[in-house]
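Student: I would love a firmer grasp of how sequence relates to backbone shape in proteins. Thank you; the sequence and its tokens follow:
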Amino acid sequence: MHLYGWNVDVSAAFYSALHCLEIVLRNALHDELKFHYARSNWWTTAQPAGEGANLITDAYRRLNRTLGRVPKSDDVVAAMPFGFWVSLVSRSNESAMWRPALYRAFRPGYRRSRREMHFHLNSLRLFRNRIMHHEPIHTRHLEADRNRIYEVAEYLAPGAAAMLGRGNTLAEALGRRPLSPNGKRWHKPGRG
């Protein structure tokens, strides 16, 4: 029960960091695409590959019903899920999104590949989904997950890592990791 309670606490502590990362990612990618395509509804010029176009269409319909008016671009951007933004950095969107615009969103100093960034973002998306679906995360290398969140956020918005650390209970929650029955911390190195 102690481990279960801690899993709930550490999941809640990760929520705010992941929440901030999602907003920083969404805004950075949207800003670059808006600038490159010279329009706030850039998706009408460069439709995302795969399910991306369908997600936008669905968001328009849903927002039109709930808002009672034609949704603005900002409404649509805010309605798009984390997975949508991660997919924009995928291989299928490399030509239309990454090469012309999105590589500039990861500044300053990002010198690695689109593929590596997509790997990091997708692993954070899967981690976020585990938390949102109330799945156990105690076997993960949670310090590595925290570091990845902070690193990606810093590439997107210099100073974001410091902002994420302020008022965040994540370090405290990680420090309270309970011991397993054999007296060791619950953690399987290399998983994460």
